[in-house]
Design a protein that fits this description.
alpha/beta, single chain, Rossmann fold, 7-stranded parallel β-sheet
């Protein structure tokens, strides 16, 4: 299976390719605005903002994993960049998939499409005894223009699979907290903050950050496994899944992905009681 990965050299793209790249059934083609930092992975250089530039990369492709994104900071809304990359760029990817007759598109959405639930209920939401559970039927409550742009992508994907001949399948993954390899554990965010001098290990801020990450963690291997199950699926036309590991504290449902594509995550934040040594 030939798989084009937009934003393939980023954090999510490397989690997928690093874990699945040796599989005989897959041939991954990264598309990114810059070469791979290690120089060991051929990359089609283009921006999803430019349809004519990306269109040739779609020829002969069986599936597209669309990860290319502009993620603003917490203060920086920068709607012009959000619109250009996340809204128009996603439409360009879908147009190219349609024109090249690509069967399936996997779209990196975000937990921020329902982020206002966390803003309303945190920090109690980080405890084991909370009773909130969000799934694909929960009302959308975006917490930012970034979240709004990802809702556009989810709905534009539905429009294409229901209205156009291609793509035939579209899957949106509402990614929670996936991190680079050095911080791929429930203590990752807290340890990185300690290294950056933001707070001390063992402080209230540290412990709250750990509790949140134990709920939101999406391990790199679980991410790759969910992608694998989606690429092998032959029954689903359109679906929204939570991109999260099997965390006991999580308020994001994974049963929908279990049922539709056989997602079987291996990691649970509660299995950790300290950072790796």
């Amino acid at each position: 299976m030939e798989v084009l990965v937009t934003g393939g050299n980023g954090m999510v793209g490397t989690a997928i390719i690093d874990n699945l790249g040796d599989r005989a059934e897959y041939e991954f083609r990264p598309l990114d605005v810059e070469p791979h930092p290690d120089g060991d992975r051929d990359t089609f250089i283009a921006s999803v903002e430019e349809y004519d530039a990306i269109r040739p990369a779609f020829d002969g492709v069986d599936a597209v994993i669309h990860l290319a994104v502009y993620v603003p900071g917490y203060v920086d809304e920068n709607w012009e960049r959000i619109r250009s990359v996340n809204v128009e760029g996603t439409r360009n990817v879908l147009r190219a998939a349609q024109d090249a007759e690509v069967e399936r598109v996997v779209f990196a959405s975000t937990n921020h499409v329902v982020g206002m639930y966390e803003e309303e209920y945190a920090p109690d939401l980080y405890e084991l005894d909370h009773d909130l559970m969000l799934d694909h039927t929960s009302p959308d409550r975006p917490d930012s223009s970034y979240g709004v742009s990802k809702l556009f992508g989810e709905n534009d994907g539905r429009f294409f699979v229901e209205k156009m001949a291609y793509p035939e399948r579209f899957y949106a993954i509402r990614i929670c907290s996936l991190r680079e390899p050095a911080y791929d554990h429930p203590y990752g965010d807290a340890e990185k903050a300690v290294e950056n001098g933001e707070f001390e290990r063992g402080s209230d801020e540290y412990e709250e950050t750990v509790r949140r990450m134990k709920a939101m963690w999406f391990s790199r291997r679980d991410c790759a496994q969910l992608i694998d199950r989606i690429l092998q699926d032959e029954h689903t036309e359109y679906a929204i899944f939570s991109g999260v590991s099997d965390n006991e504290r999580s308020w994001f449902d994974i049963e929908h992905a279990r049922k539709l594509v056989g997602y079987d995550p291996q990691d649970n934040g509660e299995d950790w009681d300290a950072p790796p040594r």
